[in-house]
Model the fold of this input.
Amino acid sequence: MNQHLARERSQIHFFAYLVGTGIHVASWRHETAFPQASIDFAHQVKLAKAAEDARFDAIFLGDSLAIDETSNPGILNRFDPIGLVTALGAVTDKIGLIATSSTSYDQPYNFARAALTADHISGGRVGWNIVTTRDLTNSTAGNYGADQHFEHSLRYQRAEEFVEVTLGLWNSWERDAFLHDKPRGRFFDRHKLNRLNHKGEFFKVAGPLNIGPSPQHSPLLAQAGTSGPGQRLGARFANALFASHPDIPQARSYRHSVRQQATAFGRNPDELFVYQAISPIVADSRKEALERIRELDNLITDQQVLDFLQEYFAGQLDFAGLGPEATVAQSGIPSIANPRTDFRSAGEQIRGREDEVTLKDLYSILTGDKRNHDFIGSPEHVAASLARWHAEGAADGFNLMFSLLPQDLERFAAGVIPILQERGLARTEYTGTTLKSHLGLAPEAAGTRAI
Done:
């Protein structure tokens, strides 16, 4: 392991998940919230710079390709992720900028060109969060001229080929291909232009791409997926893997699994960083932190919960007569023989607690909230928990999905980060200028080329 990579692996890494007024579904109703946050560029710049001041690896932007009346307000009216990271790249200096894009409903050439353009504009700080798209609304396919959403395994087959093609396009040009030799009239070296000529099951792409390598060669690859196909995709290509596990043993088991799979693909497992998704609540005391959670939860309307769950479990359960305080066990959800494939993550979080998790709790989980009592309380408590998860091999870093923005980001940055810095567990300054360098990775890290 090189010295740079070893140093980065000794520290805890952080992404800041930015969505509107926060991941909590009712955050927009909070008295301090700015409801237009998701469509206000100045607000997005403020959040990005706050994360940069805290020396986070990157900000992370999710996406959704379909909405309806029950969708999280934070996604109803927001910027396209690639467009937003392109703009943010021009007004930030060091922080990485990760955008989500779907392999199920995009085309490799269009995406490869747009993402590499953003990477150039930022000076090599862009990442791609590879998703196959959850269909929360049961209507995504209809937005793209299709009759039905791709079946789970088919989505991942398509995703693997999509990433192969994208990497091939990003390797269209050797680093020294552009000569700019004015006296001899040679703009580029023809021998260093690589045609793709890909013909596969899902895509037929000739190439080459009409843009060359960025300062970090190409965007960093990130991916979330705990199913078998999801783990395979991440282990084969990604350098940043997102997961959500309720305790250290499960998180450690997942991290061990993907590292083993990466090794089987001939990759260096130390070039994979597993980020556990959490929604930290930092306050002067645990009691105050729990009060802040209750304050937000009280802003969720009963009808909002039941309407969403009725649509989410369409045709499988009837929630009539139940209230949001009914438990998952009382609702009959555990008896569903074949739940939706994207229910897997939520199911893991509530397993064994079906008699205590309410429908309101489940609603928060399904719409993004990642609460864990290890990360709720005083700055000292949260810092100690982060250090313990890192030391016990449960996480290389954390994807911070703040419930209320910008307050929770600011509290974390002001309270937790200084404690970790004093312990040598968080960077005090950026040592590189690209997103890959923030992880100690070389520009042509293993995830850069198809294996």
In short: The first strand starts at residue 13 and ends at 17. The chain has a mean pLDDT of 92. The chain is about 35% helix and 15% strand. Residues 199 and 205 are 7 Å apart (CA to CA).
